[in-house]
Amino acid sequence: LCGGGHSPKGIDPEDFQKQSARMTAAVHPDRNFKYWLVAPAIFLLLLIGLFPLIYSLVVSFMRIDMMDTDTSFAGLYNYANLFKDARLWWSLAHTLLITAIALPIELILGLAMAYLFLERMPGRQLFVALLVLPTIISPIVAGATWRLLFDNRYGPINQIVSFFAGERMDLLWTINPNLVYPAIIFCEIWQWTPFMFLILLAALSNVDKSQLEAAEIDGARFWRSFRYIVVPAIWPVMAIAILIRGLDLFRIFDIIWALTQGGPGTKTETISIYAYVQGFKQFETSYTAAIAFLVIAILTVVCTWAIRRMGLAK
């Protein structure tokens, strides 16, 4: 009726044009309306995420500390000091050491546990739920709990060790430099291995069992099937799990702070703890901002390399 652009007989042409315009507006609403709907959410995300980042970048080029609030442009003064700060690089080394030890152990234990619970068994759902419990505990609470368990006088761990040793063992887990790293890594593994277990269990559950059965019929052993069938099938999920845990370990703070607060001395001081000490105890605001951007630069490079290396980028 309206396709030809001519008004029917007995209808005023102007009224017909207005009615056609209203019908067109009803059928084709404002094309920018969808952008107006998401604009508040985008603005809020930029305000919460992007503004602090830009503000910290600006502060890193100033010289603001507890004694001075010089907001003038200081150039690369803070970034130059990063390369002279031996304590900073030691804290980075401590972080990498914890990551390099804890991440492979969590991956191997999580994969072994996932294989164990892959088959149907009585009470499987209950056991899985119990195993995941450490992951939902706050890391600061977990660290404080393990500090009590490691207590030399009242902690049950030393009592258990003494029972098996046949004599009293006074092991200062959070003070002795030779024992503090095993204590931290044990706590970290205890809390976050269930995370790897849950993700890898979901990945293994989706492996094509017909391929495994065909390989078994052809005489392939477990390790050969695991290498050539299981690993390629679960690798995308496994790679994401490794990346998530690796980033989380790089910024580890809560458990170590609750256990040792970076001690003894600065023996277990990670990059996150060092940034916290500089920013909230020594009030080196501009220098802390420079540390933050050093960490951002390192993580950006590592993530980019890892994503390309793992084949996650298409």
Query: So what's the overall shape?
Result: flat
The helix/strand class is mainly alpha
Give the terminus-to-terminus CA distance: 50 Å
Radius of gyration, whole Å: 29 Å
User: Which parts are unreliable, with pLDDT below 50 for 5 consecutive residues or more?
Assistant: none
Looking at this protein, list some descriptive labels.
single chain, 314 residues, mainly alpha, two-stranded antiparallel ribbon
Summarize the structure in short:
The chain is mainly α and 314 residues long. It is 69% helix and 1% strand.
Describe this structure in words.
The chain is mainly α and 314 residues long. It has 13 helices and two strands; from the N terminus they run ααββααααααααααα. Strands 1-2 form a two-stranded antiparallel ribbon. A hairpin with a 4-residue loop joins β1 (63-64) and β2 (69-70). α4 (86-116) crosses α8, α4 runs antiparallel to α10 (222-250) and α12 (271-280) runs antiparallel to α13 (285-309). The radius of gyration is 29 Å and the shape is flat. The mean pLDDT is 87.
Task: Summarize the SSE layout with pairings.
Elements: H1 13-27, H2 33-59, E1 63-64, E2 69-70, H3 77-82, H4 86-116, H5 124-136, H6 139-149, H7 156-165, H8 180-205, H9 209-217, H10 222-250, H11 254-259, H12 271-280, H13 285-309
Antiparallel strand pairs: 1-2
